[in-house]
Write a structure and sequence with these properties.
The protein has five helices and no strands. By secondary structure, it is mainly alpha-helical.
Length: 240
Amino acid sequence: MSEKVTTETQGAAGEKKSGINESTLELIIAILLGVTAILTAWASWISSLHGGNQATNYTESNNLSAMGNSMYNEAAQNYMQDTLLWNTINDYMFDKELAEANGNKEAVKLIDEKIQILIEDNCTDEFAEAVNWALDEGVTPFDKEGLEESYYKEALATIDEADKILEQGKKDNANGDAYGLVSVLYSVVLFLLGIVGIFKKLPNRMVVMIVSAVLLVIATVYMVTIPLPTNFSLLSFFVH
């Protein structure tokens, strides 16, 4: 009789102990489900922000690239026009030398006036300075340091800015894909936590839960290493 009571008492204690373990397990699973759901939403949102930045950067890069190429072509045309202009001035200088050789002062004066009018009406301040320097030095204005580069400086700066924005767009694309991978990992965690209930034995449930928790930690650690979108501020979505 005493042995039977002892056995029943132990069985009841075992069931009670087993029930507590199951309750604790269900609580942990519920917490993991909630945390994973929140992190999944976060990863999906940040991924979409990266995608938006990528599209914006690609569009801005294309616009700047087109503008830079247009500016480069315009600079090349200006360079060609200034080259032709210098050839014209050179022709006037040759006529001036002939007039000087013939002692024709009136012709020399007239040619000087033509050259000055030509410079004032057709030259930019920078090129006019280079032309006057070239006339004094007996060289071409394109020998002046930095003159040729000045034609393309603004265009090249614009193209360079377009390239930088394009690189940022590529980074946004990569970061968006990385956050997408994190969302997939979180989805796997949610799936594993969702099927815990189909296992009847507590040890099996524990194994599935542990695998889920480990995968959750791995995904979260990986997500922390991925940069947030450029100029991201959570407060900016609530304060305007």
